[in-house]
Amino acid sequence: MGFESLRNRRNFLRGGLGSVATASVFPSLLTASVEGQPKQFSEKPALDKHRNLFNGDTCVYFYNPERWQPEDYTLKTLVNPRTGKMSTRPTAVGGPFQAKAIHRYVDELADNGIDTFVINANANRAWYPTKKFPSILDGYRRGDREFFRGHAICQGISEPEAVEEFLDNFSRFMDRYQDLIDAGVDWLAETSRACRRRKISPWVSIRMNDMHGSRNPEGSFFNHPLFKQKEMRLQSAYYGLQNRHDREGFNYEKSEVREMMFQQIREVVEDYDFEGLELDWWRQPLCCEPGASSATIAMMNDWFRQIRKLTQRQAKKTGKPYPLGMRIPGDLDLLKAIGLDVVTLCREGTLDFVIPAGFWATTWDMPHDELRQRLGNRVTIYGSVDDGANTLPTQNESGTIRERMRYIGACPEIERANAAGKLAMGAQGIEWFNFFSSDQNATPGFRADYTALRDIDKLDFLRGKPKQYCMSTAGNFSNPTPFELPALLPASIDPFSQRPFRLAMCAEPADRNLELVVQVVLKAGNPPAYLAVSVNGCWPNLTSESSQKLLFPCGPLTHHIPDHLGYNYRFPVSLLTDGWNRIVVENQSKELITVAAIELAVRPKTV
User: Fold this and answer.
1) Right CATH number for 27-68+96-349 from 3.20.20, 1.25.10, 2.60.40, 1.20.120?
2) Its pTM surpasses 0.85
């Protein structure tokens, strides 16, 4: 989605970690220090009650008021008074926006089994109504469209008519925040109250380097004043032609940046009623200049220990644990190269949890087993289920709706498979990310299915239910290199050659009348003469049925685009196992083939 959040301001506390709470409150708070660093903790953090996490960005309530406050909002396609033309997409009209929408959203989560709501508080500025440092609407007056003009280019909008439409829609969107400010409602605090009412644990997420305003550092209202100073931004984190501006984030080697971010974190921990903190390094994976020295890494480790000390102090104050963790890319060595030494922080006990993820579509081959070996047994590792399946373009049958990515909140079968594969690899719970993006009011037929969230963290519950697994595919809009794990597809296979692929899946019961269907997606008009597929070492299967249809619909998306054609191979479901599964595609013909995607379905047998 387009709009989101990050944080702000000044000095941070100094000093080492100490024993600031009793073991009965939080066993891992008891630390001793060796050369200024805490020893590795033997106790595991108290995270057993946090298994089904939902991450909501700063706009989560505000995107679709027609759903959460339907008595006051309706979707309309409006005439632009400046151009006389109809807008290109519908928008929610009505209001004022009220706190009841927040409570209804939390009710939806609670009714569908979410135990922990991780609410994001910031982008490059604070998005809640703080008075301590710059917030998103500082200096705004209702109806002031010009306030947002500098951000249009950050949304990729430059044509004059499109800019005017953007300003109309965006000012209408941001006025929902102004409605709450005028009513004296702090939406961040209201989130906590709604969670407490429904007995959901409220956690807070801080975006560590949000780049939504990076294409116009000086002119976008998104940006913190410190971000407008070039010397505070990274100078060497970009290369090649891929999104240079999205890599000029805050440089954490600057003390001003660390102090500003610490004060942002300090406020949400000390002044709000949360009980867990997530540092989101996927918005964006930018910290220090690449090739960080050992001194820089040590400095950053000390900074994270100060944050740990902050959460420990809050735990002592409330008498309840206050877990600290990170949402991160899955390549730990790349993270260390930019100053994020996740292995040390996990093994010494500074971090209680990590969530290895992707930018939009967490790769389906995330190596949770290898991460466990490197990070140790103390830390909790969550599986991230992001709203993007992969970058395979799909459409409805008529082709009037086409998307470059499937929003899987509208497809329970893909959600189940995504979660099942991660749990089978040892993930100890699930965090949903960008799930609400499936509420696409601009695309008819899309709607997030919140009922699919219930019990998704329980592997035994998922066994025997229809699923669709999707292998990762490359796409420059959602695969920021080098932090996204390399995509498995597309892949070319030479004549008389084979390619292995591995995918995390779960074993299935043999008594549910299920079968496994492997769909190999190739370029249309180039049918393979002899294409064989095997699963986990079975004899190669050469029998397939061509199909333009997806294995399961995702909202209105039911078919491949005309450029692609699927070939379906059927196997007994008993071939599947918990953890890694091996799929081999063999080209026994004289022509090179290119596999665009491989999708796998567990579904009822067909005759």
Assistant:
1) 3.20.20
2) yes
